[in-house]
Design a protein that fits this description.
Keywords: Heme, Iron, Metal-binding, Monooxygenase, Oxidoreductase. The protein has 17 helices and ten strands. By secondary structure, the protein is α+β, with helices and mostly antiparallel strands. The protein has one domain: Cytochrome p450 (Orthogonal Bundle). Helix 7 packs across helix 12, helix 12 crosses helix 14 and helix 14 crosses helix 17. 46% of the residues are buried. The structure holds protoporphyrin IX containing FE (HEM).
């Protein structure tokens, strides 16, 4: 039985264990081939937990794991399906081995119609996935391209904030506009005037904000996606007809990308994948609001960021710690192929594997004092591939997020800009509710910029 959510890490500080980072000892999987070993001794929850997830949000899975401890994967049910919960770096490696986890058919329709789009790279497996993934890897991991996007973000941020001296700024909203303008320009999206780009920003925020919750937020998210897919599909058709797109931009790359069978992307799928570059870049607004939250709580961290030069390592460590500490992605899902054996158990048909992202990023077995915001931890040691998983794990060629370099570079730039800005934080509600997915500081972080 659930005993309520675990205490929020965003009100109190420093509840974790002290001491050095410990080696992970509790990974829950032993590989995909039948092992013949005794079934794992993970907790079992027989009731369907969909309602509990909707009510408890980020606190649901950590609470369930705490209340049903065991060595093996926790067994539960969601949306009528059997579920096994994976947790820990070894489990991450297991989850990202494509023999163990299928993406086709794993994501519910309401998530596809809001967050990712039908036919998105997230839903592909095998050679189809590998071919589509090159489109993203070639454009999003090249250091000069990443640096150029981060530089555009810096210029936009200075332009917006420079014009607002003496005024109050709603950081979350302004960051979304800054990011949308920068990424549209960088990606070579055709012809959007300022009003169209700002609309794109608001639509991208709506797609992320409404994917996980039934009701008006979800309807807004659906409308936002439908509108932007329509606009971008038309832009793709026009650019192909006129041959106008610059080949060296992400827009040009999407237009000329070839699938595993040699075909071009149809206009709708091209629009979906363009949005899979623009939307998550705009979503860095969530981390920007969290960064300001961290600076408001920790003036020492803000001072150090402000003092550091433009190439210093502290801002990068800060960006990693924001991604680790604050709640964004709660967990990831995939379907177990028929016959998969996990910890000695042959899984029932249609089992969903859930990778516990938020829980792992706060696991005291992996992180010294996990509830302490401490950018220094990443100065002492760079993050291990399968330990820090706010954007997925495993190798990049798998389903791991191809936008991690962009996220870290853009967030580092925005953190430095914010830290150097003369601003005050007026009285407001900065609490971060854990029962809302995705969450953010309630006020969106209002700042008064120095005159
Ligand atoms: C706001 C920060 C971001 C977060 C929290 C985030 C998180 C994630 C997560 C959790 C995944 C799924 C991994 C999986 O399915 O196993 C993912 C995949 C993906 N992300 Fe990100 N991401 C962010 C930024 C970005 C950026 C900036 C881009 C592009 C510019 C991007 C593009 C993608 C794409 C295309 C995929 C699909 C990869 C695949 O299925 O192979 N993301 N992201």
């Amino acid at each position: 039985m659930d005993r309520g959510p675990p205490p929020s890490p965003y009100g109190s500080r420093s509840r974790g264990r002290s001491g050095r980072r410990r080696a992970p000892t509790h990974a829950t999987t032993r590989g995909g081939a039948p092992t013949g070993a005794a079934a794992g001794t993970g907790g079992t929850v027989t009731a369907d937990k969909t309602l509990a997830l909707l009510l408890k949000g980020y606190a649901w899975l950590p609470g369930l794991r705490r209340d049903h401890p065991g060595d093996g994967p926790l067994r539960t049910r969601l949306m009528g399906r059997p579920v096994r919960v994976l947790h820990g770096p070894e489990a991450v490696a297991f989850f990202y081995d494509e023999r163990h986890a299928r993406r086709h058919g794993a994501l519910p329709g309401p998530v596809l119609d809001t967050l990712f789009g039908r036919g998105a790279v997230h839903t592909l497996d095998g050679t189809d996935h590998r071919a589509r993934k090159t489109l993203f890897l070639e454009r999003l991991t090249e250091p000069a391209a990443v640096g150029a996007l981060a530089e555009r973000v810096r210029e936009e941020f200075r332009a917006v904030v420079g014009g607002r001296r003496g005024q109050e700024v709603h950081l979350f909203d302004e960051a979304a506009l800054v990011l949308a303008r920068a990424v549209s320009d960088w990606a070579g999206l055709p012809g959007g005037d300022r009003a169209a780009t700002d609309r794109l920003a608001r639509d991208c925020v709506a797609m992320v904000d409404g994917f996980a919750t039934p009701g008006p937020r979800h309807l807004r998210a659906r409308r936002a996606r439908a509108r932007q897919e329509e606009l971008l599909s038309r832009a793709v058709i026009q650019a192909r007809e006129s041959g106008a797109a610059a080949a060296d931009t992400p827009f040009g790359a999407v237009l000329s990308h070839r699938e595993a069978d040699g075909s071009l992307l149809d206009p709708h799928t091209a629009a979906v994948e363009l949005l899979n570059i623009v939307r998550p870049t705009v979503a860095i607004a969530w981390f920007t609001a969290f960064a300001a939250h961290a600076m408001s709580r920790r003036p020492d961290v803000r001072r150090r960021l402000a003092q550091e030069g433009d190439r210093g390592a502290y801002a990068v460590s800060f960006a990693h710690e924001v991604r680790r500490f604050y709640p964004f992605v709660p967990f990831l899902g995939a379907l177990a192929p028929d016959g998969l054996v996990l910890d000695g158990e042959r899984l029932p048909h249609g089992t969903m594997l859930l990778l516990d992202v938020f829980g792992q990023n706060h696991d005291p077995e992996l992180w010294e004092e996990p509830y302490r915001f401490d950018p220094e931890r990443f100065l002492r040691a760079a993050p291990h591939r399968d330990d820090l998983i706010p954007q997925g794990g495993g190798p990049r060629e798998g389903h791991r997020c191809p936008g991690e370099d962009v996220t870290v570079a853009v967030l580092s730039v925005l953190a430095r800009e914010l830290a150097r800005l003369d601003f005050a934080v007026p009285d407001q509600d900065l609490r971060i509710p854990l029962n809302r997915i995705p969450t953010r500081p309630r006020s969106g972080v209002r700042l008064v910029v120095g005159a």
